[in-house]
Design brief:
Blueprint (H helix, E strand, L loop, with lengths): L7 H10 L3 H12 L4 H9 L7 H26 L25 H15 L3 E2 L5 E3 H4 L18 E2 L8 E3 L4 H10 L4 E10 L11 E11 L4 H16 L5 E8 L2 E10 L16 E10 L1 H6 L8 E8 L2 H7 L12 H6 L1
Parallel strand pairs: 1-5
Antiparallel strand pairs: 2-4, 3-4, 5-6, 6-10, 7-8, 8-9, 9-10
Helix pairs in contact: 1-4, 2-4, 3-4, 4-5
This protein binds adenosine-5'-[phenylalaninyl-phosphate] (FA5).
């Protein structure tokens, strides 16, 4: 872990020296990009003791915010195309050359990753084409288990029949993490997921989830509820009403469903929430001992919790975007608005 990489004076000097928008974008990447200083420090957070992670996470967030602020100020000085030599202006009409920006789902993903990094979590990813072991069996869905029918699976025509599939949720990344590192583990795992599902106002066949996993000694359902509250209020503010209801997932026991009041009807019932007044954000629960046994973790020593939330549903509720297909239509009016 080399915190000297987060050198704000050096970043500010480089930003001030950038003479064009392209140079500025390069400098930004060098300091806060995935492969830049921030990316490297975030990557090495997982090597730290759990107790040291929040401090480093907060340092990363403070550094990122200060660099972004300096970049925005420099962008304003340079203008959209950088300083220009006096020349003949051949621009037609008043259409400027707009800059692109991150998609709303990516913005939401990054915002949530930052919340969890500041809680000491690592960010991990897994493959979208999965095998049956990671997507189902290690998660305590044995072959023929009726709960498999809850996830309308799209199979890939590879290898043995029905052994390779497009992952139906981000939970297989939990298995990959637990197979590859010993506890304590605190991780979030965002990514794209696929289901052979009928599209409606809040369901899509391709969507994103963000998974959370914590494995340590002595974790309880109270830790899970507190973590959910922290991240939901960080994204939505404290105003929304939420509820946890008993539910079932083969890989958690007890399991719960987390929902917040439908913002489209204020809880009175509408098309988007199927007249229930609530929109489910995700499922959660305490890791089932069978899952620990499948990955070689001793359930007598460790406990853990996990959750998996639909990513699109968060900006849907924060900004009142519906139906969910709006996120995938690529209508430039939607893209440029958020
Ligand atoms: C799961 O996918 C579990 N893996 C969640 C979980 C993780 C439970 C860890 C316990 C521990 P579920 O099928 O309910 O659960 O999906 C979770 C969330 O994904 C839903 O609440 C919803 O917000 C989102 N989601 C599910 N299907 C769709 C869909 N077709 N379109 C958009 N979002 C969806």
């Amino acid at each position: 872990m080399d915190l000297s990489e987060l050198d704000l004076d050096a970043a500010r000097a480089a930003i001030a020296a950038a003479a064009t928008a392209d140079e500025l974008a390069e400098v930004r990447k060098r300091f806060v990009g995935k492969k830049g200083a921030v990316g490297r420090v975030k990557e090495s957070i997982k090597t730290l003791d759990a107790a040291d992670r929040p401090k480093v996470g907060q340092a990363v967030n403070a550094f990122t915010a200060a660099v972004e602020e300096a970049v925005t100020a420099r962008e304003a000085e340079l203008g959209p195309t950088g300083p220009t030599e006096p020349s003949l202006d051949l621009t037609l009409g008043s259409h400027g050359r707009g800059r692109g920006h991150l998609h709303l789902v990516t913005q939401c993903q990054r915002e949530l990753e930052d919340v969890f990094v500041s809680l000491g979590y690592q960010v991990a990813e897994g493959p979208e084409v999965e095998d049956d072991w990671h997507n189902f069996e290690a998660l305590n869905f044995p072959p023929g288990h009726p709960a498999r029918a809850m996830q309308d699976t799209l199979y890939v025509d590879l290898g043995e029949p029905e052994q390779v599939l497009l992952r139906t949720h981000t939970s297989p990344v939990q298995i990959r993490l637990m197979e590859s590192q010993p506890p304590p583990i605190y991780a979030v795992m965002p990514g794209r997921t696929y289901r052979n599902e009928t599209v409606d106002a809040r369901h899509s066949a391709v969507f994103h989830q963000i998974e959370g996993l914590a494995v340590d000694r002595g974790l309880t359902f109270g830790d899970l509820a507190g973590t959910l509250e922290t991240f939901v209020s960080a994204y939505f503010g404290k105003k929304l009403k939420s509820r946890l209801l008993p539910s079932f997932f083969p890989f958690t026991e007890p399991s719960a469903e987390f929902a917040i009041t439908c913002v489209f009807c204020d809880g009175s019932g509408c098309r988007v929430c199927s007249n229930t007044g609530w929109i489910e954000l995700g499922g959660c629960g305490m890791i089932d001992p069978n899952v620990f046994l499948a990955v070689g973790i001793d359930p007598e020593v460790y406990t853990g919790f996990a959750f998996g939330f639909g990513l699109e549903r968060m900006p849907m509720l924060r900004y009142g975007v519906e139906p969910i297909k709006t996120f995938f239509d690529n209508d430039v009016r939607f893209l440029s608005r958020y």
